[in-house]
Every structure is written in C-alpha cells, then in structure tokens.
Amino acid sequence: MRIKLINPNTTQGMTDAMARCARAVASPGTEVMAVSPTMGPPSIEGHYDDALATPGLLMEVARGEQEGCDAYVIACFGDPGLYAARELARGPVIGIAEAAMHAASVLAPGFSVVTTLGRTRGLAWHLAQRYGMERFCRNVRATELAVLELETPGSAARATILEECRRALDEDGSEAIVLGCAGMADLCAELQDTLGVPVIDGVTAALKWCEALVTLKLNTAKRGEFARPLAKRYVGELAAFSPL
Asked: How far is CA 180 from CA 88, 152, 209, in A?
C-alpha cells in the first residue's frame, strides 16, 4: 500500500525526520511518501499558521489521489485541514493528534499532552473536545519551545521536554504522555525508555492506523459531510483549488 505522510509546514528537515520514524514502523509492502507543501508557513504555531498551511496540504492530498495513494497522515498536531482533506480523499485520512489521543486512551486511564508554545494549548484542548478525549486528557502542558528549536543542533529541547514529561506524571497524575508536536517524533523511544510509561507519537500511531484501515478495505464515506466538494469555480489566488 502507499501512504502519503504530509507535513503541512515547509521545513524539509522536519519532514525527513518524520519519514524516518514512520518508515521504521511501517509494515513490509507499505510505501511511505513523505512530503512538505510547496507553499505555507515554516512552522505551525497558532490559528493563523494553521489556516494558511491548509491550502498547500490540500494540494498534496489532491496530488496523492492522482498518484494512487491509499491513505494519508496529516503530520501536524493541530490536525489542520483534516475534514477538508477527507472530502478530497478516497482512502482514510488520519491526523496525528487524533491518532495519538485515541491510542493513549486505550493504554492508560489518563494522559497529558506535552507540546511546544503555550499559545497552542487551546488548539490541543479543542481537539481533545472534538475527538471525545477530554475525559482522558488530564492536562496540556507547554514547554515554551518554538517548533523550529526542535531542529536546532545543540539546543536544550530534549532536556526541556523530558523535564515537562516528568512534571506531567508527577503533578497531573497521568499514566501516559502524548507528544504534542510532530517534530518530537524522534524523541519518543528515548522518552519512553527513560520515563517507563507509554509515550505516544502521533506520526507513527497515525501511520499504523492508516495501514489497519487500508488492510480492512475501509475508505472515507462519500455521502453526507465527507462527500466530494461541490463543483464550482473559485476566483483570484484560489482559482487553482476549484473543485471542478
């Protein structure tokens, strides 16, 4: 099967790191196509970034349909454009926050999300509510690390994230940690070994969920809310996105 992993930001180094993590857990016969859009923000750290990352993301989904992709991973913890992508895609589309929270909810009675900047905490809480995960989510904790700091050699990002995870276990009473940024994917195994609790990275969780759904021959519903977009001609800068 062919799964397209889309990093909605334009930082290629982050996309490459996600690809390594995804391919490490992919089943034999699964091809992981990891891409960044050709337009959009270099990192997604708020509602504005989230909104402007969506057109490039949707363009990659549309290309994926032409490339014969079987499923898609939206590799940003804000799950930008998730429902719009499901309108375009035949196969499953999974957001990494969605996948990570659901995985954590069956592994532990309660989890904490450890994320980047404090300004993104509201986004994570909103998603927990949307996915029915609010009763499992004990807290959303910010490290006040900018997303691109995770890419900076020699930064204190790893130590900062580990310390916040420890505080989550001690202060929130959580039994599992959800990593609240796709850029943290390559820290997952190290954190789990050190902390001794389940640490869930949404990139790999979403990939395995996609594999399962494709294996079960399940596609996205094409009646009602996730039906194809209605044909109409858009104008101006969005003309190329017209669902004709």
From this structure: 26, 18, 18
CB 188 within 8 Å of CB 179: yes
Cβ–Cβ under 8 Å, residues 87 and 229? yes
pLDDT in tens, 139-180: 999 999 888 887 777 678 889 999 999 999 999 999 999 999
CATH of domain 2-96+204-241: 3.40.50.12500
- The token pair that represents 156 in the structure block: 């204190």
The tokens describing 136, both together, are 């499992």
The values of phi and psi at residue 198, to 5°, are: -60, 130
> For the whole model, what pTM was predicted?
0.95
Structure tokens at 195: 């902390």
Domain boundaries for CATH 3.40.50.12500 within the chain: 2-96+204-241, 97-201
Length of the chain: 244
Q: What is the DSSP letter of 168?
A: H
Q: By C-alpha distance, which of 118, 57, 82, 96 is closest to 184?
A: 96
Low-confidence ranges of the chain (pLDDT < 50): none
> Taking Cα atoms as reference points, which of 213, 218, 205, 207 lies closest to residue 107?
205
Query: Distance between CA atoms of 75 and 96, rounded to whole angstroms?
Result: 6
CA dist., res. 56 & res. 11, Å (int):
13
Tell me which residue has tokens 């807290």. Answer: 139
Would you state the pLDDT for residue 147?
Answer: 83
